[in-house]
# Entry
Amino acid sequence: MAAEWGYSPTNGPDVWARLFPQAGGARQSPVDICTSIASSDSNLEMKKLTFAYESQSDLRILNTGHGWKVEAPQSGSRLEGGPLGEDIYQLEQFHCHWGETSAEGSEHTVDGRAYAGELHLVHWNTTKYQSFAEAAQHPDGLAVLGVFFDVGNESNDEIEKIVSTLSEIKFKGQFTDIPDVIDPTTFLPSGLGYWTYLGSLTTPPCNECVIWIVYKEPITVTEEQVTYH
Ligand SMILES: NCCOCCOCCNC(=O)c1ccc(S(N)(=O)=O)cc1
Ligand SMILES: [Zn+2]
# Structure
């Protein structure tokens, strides 16, 4: 039985490769995004990244033990263009990484700077593959949109619909339904500039199957919305 991976010295990222060989690979995420060496690719400007999501209610939210995850398989959603070639990607789930304080918590960093948290909208390639699990075995299987959280005075209404349910799922494995209607489009910043690179799942099994699209502009949430209680 694989030991529980986590973020302590004995089960954290430095030892994941012992149990999950892909964690020792050449295209592992997260990375530090060095803005001075990121090159702008004129192709990307030509093929605009486009997305279309449905609004859904009664989505199931789960305490994964490392944060919350909302299961949101949306056959009517589409993410395409930009670095995704001719393939169409469909939303599967979205989840959040955050930390003990608002000074840390994001997985990607920008010129060494961490944000208070990071939202991941996880999509899979429905043009080429028949399921999420199958797509996760291929280098172009998944596309994940990363959105940084900045802490400020305005709370984010859509995030509030999610974090307001966390008191019901205090323990790993617990889940509940979010009664409100959630529209994933509202999680995206107004400025749609992004960095993109070929990487991996940021947690075990660390499959090298993700085309990462990390938005440059963070969205603002309150301290309450993005720190462990
Ligand atoms: N069970 C066989 C291997 O399956 C590979 C897929 O892993 C399933 C569990 N993990 C995920 O789905 C998963 C999805 C997204 C991210 S992340 N943080 O990179 O967006 C990390 C992990
Ligand atoms: Zn993630």
